[in-house]
Amino acid sequence: MKDGFVKVAAATPIVKVADTISNGNRIRELIDKAEDKKVRLIVFPELSVTGYTCGDLFFQNALIKRAEDEIKVIAEHTKGKEVIAVLGLPYSYNGKLYNTAAVIKGGKVIGLVPKRNIPNYGEFYELRYFTPGPKEPVLVDFNGDKVYFGSNILFRCSNMKEFTFAIEICEELWVPNSPSIEHCGAGAMIVANLSASDETVGKSDYRRDLVRTQSSKQVCGYIYANAGEGESTTDMVFVGNNLISENGTILEEAAPYDKGIVISEIDLSMLSNERRKKSTYASFGTGSYIISEFGISMDEDELPETSLTRVINPSPFVPCDKLVRDKRCQDIINIQAQGLKTRISHIGIKNVIIGVSGGLDSTLALLVAHKAFDLLKLDKSGIIGVTMPCFGTTDRTYNNSISLAKCLGITFKEIPIKEAVELHFKDIGHDIDNHDITYENSQARERTQVLMDLANMYNGIVIGTGDLSELALGWATYNGDHMSMYGVNSSVPKTLVRHLVAYFANETKDSELQRVLNDILDTPVSPELLPPKDGRIAQVTEDIVGPYELHDFFLYNIVRYGFRPTKVYRLAKIAFAHKYNGEIILKWLNTFYRRFFTQQFKRSSLPDGPKVGSVGLSPRSDWRMPSDASSTIWLEELKNL
């Protein structure tokens, strides 16, 4: 449970209809398995102690009594265990029968939650047996203990408050006003659903979408345990298909007809941060809810690390699946091009100026401009690509700039800036052999001056090429490449820029354009501000500031989820275990935090640019941070590692 992770499970025992002892044995076996795997919450299907398909046997007092007796035996079995078990049983109260979930922890039943929404259509006829349960909890006597019985119960960990869950039962997920809406508004971070959903054609996909969407809308973890093998097949077939979802993502699922247990970890700290950020997230307060508290054996700071079975994606900005990735690339390019199209139309111009370096960022900006001009039906000669060779320019990037411009049919200009920069050095008294920051930034600012003046000459605007990763690190010359009149790449991280250019390369039918784009993809990322060595790039960006794949991982988890440095470090070690050791990761994580805080002033004066994803650093929308904020508490936490 450290770092906010709680290990949870959904389990489908093989049942024997109406055989509570056999069912209890199977349930206890799965509880033991969950305990061995450090699971803290395990959810079983609806009416799992008796079986869902008992039919008119639910009118038999013997079955009802034996179900309650078996719950007592199962509760006794959990003594000394950390796992919480949620089971289904028919429960009789005040002369009525209720389809009920029993929540068990440490040898006791700590709550009874009845089903409120009873289906009575199609193959379901539950109203024949069961009464809709009360919303507001009442105290009942259950096997000699006083226990709350009602829908509005929150189960909360006394020494880890974020670990709060609530219950809904099967149909309640499918109705328009699900109880989980109120539960989550009252503070539940996890919803446990005990279900007996039969299988029909297409239903598993719909069920999956419901679980995923509900976890997204309620910003919660959702554990869905479904009935399976052993239920009567007189009229229905049950196939399990258990699901664990978190904020719109399926973390783990059992394929239909699988039996047993699925396990994953729900990130409570991430969910909590998401809810804090969303101003429209409804928080109703606990109101009529009863809080049933349970404890864990250690305080959060003393807990060992939860072993994670969930996948930690090393490239959170880039979908793993190629079809999804291609669709994402297409969507982003359309957003970029549409943003630029609208800006060009609004100003009423027909020309744009782009500094073309032969690198990834300027290539993407040029390709986006090309698409925007297609949308506007403007002549491509209005795209003015400018290469400005100087001290660090290599033949490879220079030639790629020329070839790219030819393939795209744009206006191309070559304006060497070496003499202008040398004259500037003379004016300010800078030694040309001193390859310091002044030497580098003078070139960047000279290039920006050239582009801005050309924009005036051609009645156009300068298109910025800098990307989101560079903005996060402040890897841009202030009032140099940092400045433009519209930055099409400003919310696209470097790892995604590469895939966008690759997408263009794969989609084009022009073999020469494809060759050029592939060579650009193979070129090391560099600002090319220092003289080449033996004709090759001497200044590789990732050697200086660190690998962009690491920085993009840090950026996503820090800005998107607000994770602490220790958690980001832990997740990075898992995600990049195949590539970087902990020492390397820690080194570049320190670099990220240091640069992220010290370079905010560059982001505070960021030019306009379209937002394309869930992470952005524009001061007008996503990221409002003071330029003089201190990084002390973040760096101190890293120091303690």
Structure write-up:
This protein is of the alpha/beta class and 641 residues long. The chain has two domains: 2-302, Carbon-nitrogen hydrolase (Nitrilase/N-carbamoyl-D-aminoacid amidohydrolase), CATH 3.60.110.10; 322-639, HUPs (Rossmann fold). It has helices at residues 20-36, 61-77, 171-174, 179-185, 203-217, 268-277, 322-347, 360-376, 395-408, 418-428, 437-457, 468-473, 494-507, 511-522, 541-545, 548-560, 565-575, 582-598, 600-604, 632-639; strands at residues 5-12, 41-43, 84-93, 96-105, 108-114, 138-142, 145-149, 153-157, 164-169, 190-195, 221-226, 243-246, 249-253, 260-267, 290-294, 352-355, 383-387, 411-414, 461-464, 486-487. The longest helix has 26 residues, at 322-347. It starts with a strand and ends with a helix. The relative contact order is 0.08.
